[in-house]
Specification:
- This protein has 15 helices and twelve strands.
- By secondary structure, the protein is an alpha/beta fold.
- It has two domains: 186 residues, Rossmann fold, CATH 3.40.50; 151 residues, Glycogen Phosphorylase B (Rossmann fold, 3-Layer(aba) Sandwich).
- A six-stranded parallel beta sheet has the order 2-1-3-4-5-6, with helices on both faces. Strands 9-8-7-10-11-12 form a six-stranded parallel beta sheet, with helices on both faces.
- Strand 10, helix 12 and strand 11 form a beta-alpha-beta unit.
- Helix 2 packs across helix 3 and helix 3 packs parallel to helix 5.
Length: 367
C-alpha cells in the first residue's frame, strides 16, 4: 500500500474548515487505497514523524514575520530530511512554507517522492494579495518547475491565474468530497415556500452587508414564497454597525439566527435551507473558493451567487445553482427559475469530479 503524508501548518485550532479539509482528504485518500500519515495537531501523537515536527502550529502564531519564516525554514528542512521517499501533501500551502521549500533546492533535488501543493488563495497570499505568492513562484521557478512538485489550485479561476502569471503548470483540486449523509435531491415542482438564507461567518467579505439590498430587490411576489434566514453579526465583531443592525431588526420577514453556532449546528442549519445566498466580495473572492459552498454541494443545496467570483465556473459548469449580476438586477429572474425548475441539479456529477481530481493527483505519486 502506498503511503502519503498530509502536512498542514495552517491547522492550529480544532475549529474551522482547515482542519475539516485535512480530515476529509485523509478519508478520501484512504478510500482510494493510501496509507495516510498525518502531521497536523488533531491526530494522535503516534502519527508524528519526529519530535521536531510536533508543534507544526508554532510559527503560525508568531507575530514577527521574520521569526515565523525562521521557524518555517527549520520545520520544512526537517520535514524534507525525514521524508525523502515519502510523498507530502500540503493541503493548504502557506506563504512561509512555500518560501521555505524554495530555499531548499538541494534537498528537493535529492527527493525520490512527489510534493503536492494545493493553493486556496488565502494562506499563501498574505493579506489576500496574490502578487505575494507569484513573487515566490517566480523567484524559485527553477525549484518549483522540477518534476518533484505537483501544483493544484482550489478553483478553475485560480488555477488559470497562477499558471498564466507564473509560467508553471497548474490544475484544479477542489475542496474534498464530504459524506453525503443527509443529501437530498431538490424537487422544486410544486414547492410553495422555500427557505433561503445567508449563513456562515457574518462578515463584510462574506456578503453580510448585502442583505438589505437583497431584501429591497426581492419582488413582492417572491417575498410571499420565501422564508429568509440570516446569521447575525455579534456586537463584539469589529465590523459591527449599529445602524445597519437596527435596519435589519425592523424587517419582520427576516428569521434571525443570533446565537454563535458550532460547526455541527451550522451544518444542521444549512441542511434546512432550499437555497444558499453567497454574496461574496468581488475582490477577495475573485479567485477563491468557499468551504460553505462545498458544504452545500454535499447536502444537495444549490447556491445563488455573483457571476464574478472564483467558484462561479464550478457553479455554471456543473449546474450547482444560479449566477447573478452584482447589482442584483437578475435576482428575481433567478428565483423564478428556481421555483420553475423540474430537474435535479448537478451535485452527483460534481461529487464525481471531486473524487476524479484526487485520483488524478494521486496517479502522479511515482516519479
Amino acid at each position: 500500500m502506498k503511503s502519503i503524508l498530509i502536512f498542514d501548518p495552517t491547522v492550529h485550532s480544532v475549529f474551522g474548515h482547515n482542519l475539516d479539509q485535512n480530515r476529509l482528504y485523509s478519508d478520501c485518500l484512504k478510500q482510494i487505497g493510501f496509507n495516510v500519515l498525518m502531521s497536523t495537531n488533531w491526530e494522535d501523537e503516534s502519527h508524528w514523524l519526529q519530535q521536531e515536527l510536533k508543534p507544526v502550529n508554532v510559527y503560525t502564531q508568531l507575530q514577527d514575520p521574520k521569526l515565523r519564516q525562521q521557524q518555517s525554514d527549520f520545520q520544512i528542512k526537517n520535514l524534507l530530511l525525514a521524508t525523502p521517499q515519502l510523498p507530502i501533501f500540503f493541503v493548504n500551502i502557506d506563504y512561509h512554507s512555500l518560501e521555505s521549500l524554495g530555499r531548499n533546492s538541494d534537498l528537493i533535488s535529492k527527493r525520490s517522492a512527489k510534493i503536492f501543493l494545493r493553493f486556496i488563495g488565502v494562506h499563501e497570499s498574505l493579506d489576500d494579495n496574490q502578487e505575494n505568492v507569484l513573487h515566490i513562484l517566480k523567484r524559485y521557478k527553477n525549484v518549483f518547475s522540477s518534476s518533484c512538485f505537483v501544483m493544484r489550485a482550489e478553483t478553475k479561476s485560480y488555477a488559470r491565474y497562477l499558471q498564466q502569471l507564473s509560467g508553471l503548470e497548474f490544475a484544479t483540486l477542489p475542496y474534498p468530497p464530504r459524506s453525503m449523509e443527509g443529501f437530498r435531491n431538490i424537487e422544486n415542482d410544486g414547492l410553495q415556500l422555500a427557505k433561503m438564507g445567508l449563513l456562515g461567518m457574518p462578515r463584510r467579505e462574506k456578503g453580510y452587508f448585502e442583505f438589505l439590498k437583497l431584501f429591497s430587490v426581492v419582488s413582492e411576489n417572491n417575498r410571499k414564497r420565501i422564508e429568509l434566514f440570516l446569521q447575525r453579526m455579534p456586537s463584539t465583531h469589529s465590523e459591527y454597525a449599529g445602524e445597519f443592525e437596527n435596519q435589519l431588526d425592523s424587517i419582520k420577514e427576516i428569521n434571525n439566527i443570533r446565537e454563535n453556532l458550532s460547526s455541527e449546528e451550522l451544518q444542521e442549519r444549512i441542511s434546512q435551507l432550499n437555497l444558499m445566498f453567497l454574496f461574496y466580495d468581488h475582490v477577495k473572492y475573485r479567485l477563491r473558493g468557499s468551504a460553505i459552498f462545498f458544504d452545500c454541494m454535499a447536502k444537495g443545496i444549490p447556491c445563488l451567487t455573483f457571476d464574478t467570483i472564483g467558484f462561479s465556473n464550478e457553479v455554471a459548469d456543473f449546474d450547482l445553482g444560479y449566477l447573478i449580476r452584482s447589482d442584483f438586477s437578475n435576482l428575481n429572474e433567478s428565483i423564478d427559475h428556481f421555483f420553475d425548475r423540474k430537474t435535479n441539479f448537478g451535485f452527483q456529477s460534481f461529487r464525481k469530479y471531486q473524487y476524479d481530481c484526487v485520483r488524478n493527483l494521486m496517479n502522479t505519486t511515482e516519479l
